[in-house]
Specification:
This protein is an alpha+beta fold and 181 residues long. The chain has 7 helices and 7 strands; from the N terminus they run αααβββαββαββαα. Strands 3-2-1-7-6-4-5 form a 7-stranded antiparallel sheet, sandwiched between helices. β4 and β5 form a beta hairpin. The radius of gyration is 16 Å and the shape is globular. The protein starts with a helix and ends with a helix.
Length: 181
């Protein structure tokens, strides 16, 4: 199943082809932030954050995720810069190597773990987010060492869109040997 998904992503009319066209239109080196900007536009997200794990920091020394790249069009600064692995949903995504889709409910969020920066999410009107584990170190024993998180307001990400975002995240994932061989 994943092989077909990757083939669709890499097809001449797929997401990767559109991303490649966008990147070839830009002169010079391409930053991850520019890729995130494309993702934000393509998936109608409010913003996106690329988090990288640093071991030994944060609550219980379990690590902290630091913002390495972001795209929040319309904002002059990123809304957040770090997350504790032990107490954040994106941290759990990295630890468990499992993507997560969460939506706002009348009572808060549909997660058993409290969201980080709830006041910022409230102020920005974020209705849902998708966090995807990323493997930056191809031969690491770690499940994942980074996360890509997309935020949306005005509507929620659907499970189908979450799946599309997960497949798009494969383009940044170094353990995806099919894409990096």
């Amino acid at each position: 199943m994943i092989g077909r998904d990757v083939d669709a992503l890499l097809s001449p009319s797929g997401f990767a082809a559109a991303l490649d066209k966008r990147l070839t239109d830009v002169d010079g080196l391409i930053a991850v932030s520019e890729i995130l900007e494309f993702y934000v536009q393509h998936f109608r997200a409010f913003g996106a954050a690329f988090w990288v794990l640093v071991d030994g920091l944060g609550a219980g020394g379990k690590g902290r995720l630091f913002l390495q790249a972001e795209s929040f069009p319309g904002l002059t600064h990123a809304p957040f810069y770090h997350l504790d692995v032990a107490s954040s949903i994106s941290g759990r995504v990295v630890q468990q190597n499992a993507p997560a889709l969460h939506c706002r409910t009348e009572a808060g969020w549909d997660s058993d773990l409290a969201v980080s920066y709830p006041e910022v999410l409230d102020r920005l009107g974020i209705d849902s987010f998708v966090s995807i584990p990323i493997h930056l170190t191809p031969h690491s024993d770690r499940a994942a060492d980074a996360a890509l998180t997309f935020y949306r307001r005005g509507s929620r990400f659907t499970p189908a869109e979450s799946g599309e975002l997960q497949r798009a995240g494969l383009l940044l994932d170094r353990k995806s040997t099919r894409l990096n061989s």
